């Protein structure tokens, strides 16, 4: 789960991590009042959406007067902001953060996340802050500094200081920077984050260390023990189809191509996406139906996968374990009828009750349902059919 920048900053503040003074607002009037309350010469008006890259997209405005705050607030509220992270459809701005302007000396990058190769938390730092860190990591990997954290010891103070020195933070500021790292690490662990990222982490002209931006991602599986975090959920920021699927206990991920994939299990989902790519196709999405559902559930799954018209074909790739192939077959027939689907549905079934499942589909003899023997054959077929469509 993601939260907004201003919510993240409130959490950081409660852990003693220094952030600029600021307040979230929902209207231009509130923005003006918040700016007056701040009483600073420079106020920053920041669009609050669940995506980064706002600065370059015009979502972060520096205002030098109350009149400017009002102008920028009116400009940004209700606007659809398209950033490198939103996708072409962009995200609508419903909230702003009105924040004290900060005199930036240097902009650095700092984050904590899980390194899957070492199965450890890693602290990542870079002097190339403020910019897109993914680009820094791929084009100049030597600019990325890492500290691996022993899960039993936690982040050791010497590691924080070592990071500060490697970031060329001047000696007078090293302790402040190290304290911030310790604070952010505590947030990361206490709140079960999957990512805690500060970009930029700034050294101010008056030698303070501050988080000017923060992105916190939380492990969904741990949310049950953080009601305070769950309460910060902003559903208007989430993909409505992913929400709809989650409500049905299904995992849906939108991928932007034109081959919809209905699978069971995360591993098979990955393999299916890979094999479609291998045959030159582009997955539109995948929907993991998990364990056994009813035919009606399958129909709902098909609806979610196809309703935006993006998918030009469906690949059903199910290995029946808990799922039974005959029930899946009935589900496909039912869904096809209910939704009057016209696009080809390529079906690969294997595992429990596969004979019965295939028999059912054969008998039904539906023109747009094509049965295949293997996953390879299915992927090749669906890509071929979609290309013709
Ligand atoms: P994003 O990562 O979405 O582009 P940021 O919050 O990182 O948004 O802001 C982009 C840039 O705007 C920062 O790198 C910084 O230079 C500037 N900025 C953001 N907040 C402030 C602030 N409070 N005072 C001064 N400059 C700021
Ligand atoms: Mg940023």
UniProtKB/TrEMBL annotation:
Reactions catalysed, as given in the entry: GTP + succinate + CoA = succinyl-CoA + GDP + phosphate; succinate + ATP + CoA = succinyl-CoA + ADP + phosphate
Binding-site residues for substrate, renumbered to this chain: 264
PROSITE patterns (UniProt xref): ATP_GRASP, SUCCINYL_COA_LIG_3
Residues the entry annotates as binding ATP: 46, 53-55, 99, 102, 107
Pathway assigned in UniProt: Carbohydrate metabolism; tricarboxylic acid cycle; succinate from succinyl-CoA (ligase route): step 1/1
One GO cellular component term noted in the UniProt record for this chain: succinate-CoA ligase complex
Cofactor remark: Binds 1 Mg(2+) ion per subunit.
SUPFAM superfamilies: Glutathione synthetase ATP-binding domain-like (SSF56059), Succinyl-CoA synthetase domains (SSF52210)
Record-linked Pfam families: ATP-grasp_2, Ligase_CoA
EC number: 6.2.1.5
UniProt binding sites for Mg(2+): 199, 213
Record field: transmembrane: none
GO MF entry, a single one: ATP binding
Cofactor names: Mg(2+)
Keyword annotations from UniProtKB, A to Z: ATP-binding, Ligase, Magnesium, Metal-binding, Nucleotide-binding, Tricarboxylic acid cycle
Enzyme class, spelled out: ligase
InterPro entries: ATP-grasp, ATP-grasp_succ-CoA_synth-type, ATP_grasp_subdomain_1, Succ-CoA_synthase_bsu_CS, SUCC_ACL_C, Succ_CoA_ligase-like_bsu, Succinyl-CoA_synth-like
Domain ATP-grasp, residue spans: 9-55
GO BP field: succinyl-CoA metabolic process; tricarboxylic acid cycle
PANTHER family: SUCCINATE--COA LIGASE [GDP-FORMING] SUBUNIT BETA, MITOCHONDRIAL, SUCCINYL-COA SYNTHETASE BETA CHAIN
Subunit structure: Heterotetramer of two alpha and two beta subunits.
Function, in words: Succinyl-CoA synthetase functions in the citric acid cycle (TCA), coupling the hydrolysis of succinyl-CoA to the synthesis of either ATP or GTP and thus represents the only step of substrate-level phosphorylation in the TCA. The beta subunit provides nucleotide specificity of the enzyme and binds the substrate succinate, while the binding sites for coenzyme A and phosphate are found in the alpha subunit.
Family recorded in the similarity comment: Belongs to the succinate/malate CoA ligase beta subunit family.
Name of the protein this chain belongs to: Succinate--CoA ligase [ADP-forming] subunit beta
Species the sequence originates in: Pectinatus cerevisiiphilus
Lineage of the organism: Bacteria, Bacillati, Bacillota, Negativicutes, Selenomonadales
């Amino acid at each position: 789960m993601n939260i907004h920048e201003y919510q993240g900053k409130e959490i950081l503040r409660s852990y003693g991590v220094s952030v600029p003074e600021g307040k979230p607002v929902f209207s231009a009037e509130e923005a003006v009042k918040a700016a007056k309350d701040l009483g600073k010469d420079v106020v920053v008006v920041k669009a609050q959406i669940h995506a980064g890259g706002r600065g370059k997209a015009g979502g972060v405005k520096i205002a030098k007067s109350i009149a400017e705050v009002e102008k920028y607030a009116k400009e940004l509220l209700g606007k659809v902001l398209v950033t490198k992270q939103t996708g072409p459809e962009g995200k609508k701005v419903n909230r702003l953060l009105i924040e004290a302007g900060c005199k930036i000396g240097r902009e650095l990058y700092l984050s904590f996340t899980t390194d899957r190769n070492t199965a450890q938390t890693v602290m990542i730092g870079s002097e190339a802050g403020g910019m897109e860190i993914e680009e820094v990591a791929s084009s100049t990997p030597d600019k990325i500094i890492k500290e691996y954290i022993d899960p039993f010891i936690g982040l050791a103070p010497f590691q924080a200081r070592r990071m500060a020195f490697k970031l060329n933070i001047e000696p007078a500021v090293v302790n402040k920077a190290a304290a911030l790292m310790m604070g952010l690490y505590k947030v990361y662990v206490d709140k079960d984050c999957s990512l805690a990222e500060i970009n930029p982490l700034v050294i101010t002209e008056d030698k303070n260390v501050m988080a000017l931006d923060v992105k916190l991602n939380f492990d969904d599986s741990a949310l049950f023990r953080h009601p305070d975090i769950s309460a910060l959920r902003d559903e208007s920021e989430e993909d409505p189809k992913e929400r709809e699927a989650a409500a049905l206990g299904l995992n849906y991920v939108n991928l932007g191509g034109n081959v919809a994939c209905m699978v069971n299990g995360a591993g098979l989902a990955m393999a299916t996406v890979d094999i479609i790519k291998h045959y030159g196709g582009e997955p539109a999405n995948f929907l993991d139906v998990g364990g056994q559902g009813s035919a009606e559930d399958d129909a709902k799954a098909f609806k979610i996968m196809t309703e935006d018209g993006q998918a030009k074909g469906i690949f059903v790739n199910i290995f029946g374990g808990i799922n039974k192939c005959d029930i899946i077959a009935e589900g496909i027939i039912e869904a096809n009828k209910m939704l009057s689907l016209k696009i080809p549905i390529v079906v690969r079934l294997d595992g429990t009750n596969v004979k019965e499942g295939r028999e059912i589909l054969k008998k039904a003899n539906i023109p747009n349902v094509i049965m295949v023997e293997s996953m390879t054959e299915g992927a090749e077929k669906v890509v071929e059919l979609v290309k013709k469509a």
